[in-house]
Fold Transport permease protein.
Amino acid sequence: MSTLTANKVSLFRIFFMESKAELQRLIRTPAFSLPTILFPVMFYVFFGVVFSKNPSSAPTYLMITYCVFGIVGPALFSFGVGIAVERGQGWFHLKEVSPMPASAYIVSRIVLSAIFAVIIVLILFMIGATLGNVELPLIKWLSLAGIFVFGSLPFCAIGMTLGLYLKANSAAAIINLIYLPMSFLSGLWIPINMMPKALQEIANVFPPYHLAQLGLKIIDMDAGGSIIKHISILVLYSLVFSYLAIKTYYRKNKS
């Protein structure tokens, strides 16, 4: 085995072990993992299935939007609150000075967000198919799952930036103040066309709206706009907040 191959294997193992450790830590913290999974599921069951006034299309539409609501939370809180708390405890600095590459910490958080995204999406898909009578071709189920998992990346970047800015004792409250209103204004709780015109225009500013529109476009229930537009805005959010996170990280290290 060449040195380069050995280094790749070693780096992959570091990523794997760090991701495994993060997952085990969260499993032992049900105060985070259970609400993260159960809240979007409960909301969908109540508003998308049980109390739906339009049983023909509402369960399908709201399954998409609550999937987006479900994957945004873990990305924001895993990075945002997680990093802020670890910074406050000194654990973040300890990892910085350890031999572990800094990329392993970021990769492990992204993997963690992706795992939670997969779990939430699968549960909502199963509820939609069984209780909501949602019927889609297999290719559409798979396309939606792929969009949602990869669509968590912009929110990981946003969460990372917030985690580097916020203090441990205020991070959860501030991120909730961002997460919940942003979800509502993005049309994740109620269909966007039921909102006032002014709020429909505001929705275009928020990344959850564009991720939801990508999913809704697959089932022909979107509010318009090209696929390129929605993807471009999500990529732009990813790049801008990744840049802000890197800049903040190095600035704090110098101070």
